[in-house]
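User: Quick sanity check before I run a bigger batch. Here is a single chain. Can you write out its predicted 3D structure?
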Amino acid sequence: MSSQAKTYFTPEEYLELERNSETKSEYFNGEIFAMGGASPQHVLIVTNVVGELHSQLKDRSCNLYSTDLRLKVSPTGLYTYPDVIVVCGKPEFSDDQKDTLINPTVIVEILSQSTKDYDRGEKFELYRMLLAFKEYVLISQDKCHVEHYVRQTDNTWLLSETNRIEDHIDLASVGCILKLSEIYDKVDLLSQ
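Assistant: Done. Predicted structure follows.
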């Protein structure tokens, strides 16, 4: 039985490959991880969140990005593609290519069966090292359920969650409200 040795890449090698690739991949600890496609529910929820935030941020000094903007978690070396990012103030990038953001204010991730543990666990642990990062929203794609984490002044994180379609999430750091009825508009939920 033979086993192949893992190939490890530097961040610079990853970025060169990624910038020339037609598909997206994440990078962490020298390894590159291909990203799979998203379900229709996932895509619709991202679209709904972006639509709601766009209308509320229109006249503010905040920028809204979805799915295709890479994020570098500088202290950890993670490169990833969050579903939705809001940056209030001037966006900062890791280099002159301006394709890798480093200062998110709010990150939204849509949970799938294959990513939910990572998004709640190790990924969130890495995100918390970003100084500008204030709020994290995790949205289930197969049932009405939203988790909202807010950084406190003592650098701890406060969790609130809801599964009530009539509720809303108050994104205080960017002055926006996300209604669950809008997040899940036209989404075919498997269970309520």
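The two ends are 48 Å apart (CA to CA).

User: Great, the batch can go ahead then.
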